[in-house]
Specification:
It contains no helices and eleven strands. By secondary structure, the protein is an all-beta fold. A hairpin with a 2-residue loop joins strand 9 and strand 10.
């Protein structure tokens, strides 16, 4: 089990940028696949981005080219750089840590979420 705490959310205008951080404790994140998911009102939770222990990344189609996920294992922290933000990026952003069992992501920890609001 790994404890995760997100930070960096807030209110930003359309076209702006935000940087989210996910700080881990209780476990070394270097062995984990780390990711961000978001939950918008009345929508299903969706994958935003994921990064594996080797640094390989994948992104949801709606954020490709605008968001960048990264990790600093020495600081036990993961980041999400969000640029060219759109109102449809509004939602609660959750970070997670886990393993891949085949193609299935099995979470070992979730953060409490941080609100991102993009005004038009």
């Amino acid at each position: 089990q790994v404890d995760l705490v997100e930070s960096g959310g807030g209110l930003v205008q359309s076209g702006g940028s935000l940087r989210l951080a996910c700080a881990a404790s209780g476990s070394d994140i270097s062995m984990y696949v780390m990711g961000w998911e978001r939950q918008a009102p009345e929508k299903q939770r969706e994958l935003v981005a994921r990064i594996d222990s080797g640094g390989s990344t994948n992104y949801g189609d709606s954020v490709k080219g605008r968001f960048t996920i990264s990790r600093d294992n020495a600081k036990n922290t993961m980041y999400l750089e969000m640029n060219s933000l759109k109102p449809e990026d509004t939602g609660v952003y959750f970070c997670n840590a886990g393993i891949l069992s085949g193609s299935i992501f099995v979470a070992r920890g979730w953060g409490q979420g941080t609100q991102v609001t993009v005004s038009s």
